[in-house]
Prior knowledge:
Elements: H1 4-16, H2 21-28, H3 32-40, H4 47-56, H5 61-66, H6 72-86, H7 92-104
Helix pairs in contact: 2-3, 2-4
Amino acid sequence: MMGRGITERLVELLKSKNMSQKELSLKAGVTESAISHYVNGDRVPRGANLSKIANALETTTDYLLDGKAANKKDDLMTARLLIARNANDMTRDERMELMKILLQGDTD
Length: 108
């Protein structure tokens, strides 16, 4: 059995988000068969599939692969990059929602 760490993190994230493998498959655009292999530890996602799964689970590829959580400074940089890359594709409502979240500040 390969990739035991990533398997455990995938299962944990699916449970915490109350998401089925099929829902992850649809949200990530990865076949159900591939998701099943990843969750069962038969295969480890690589490249584009890893990125798609991380995005669908609202986490990072680093977390999926090695369990490393990004620190707050990294989170902020990641958020800035994502906003910059996707701003033109966002609807007005999505931009307003994002601004609302950003203006709320750190709630920890």
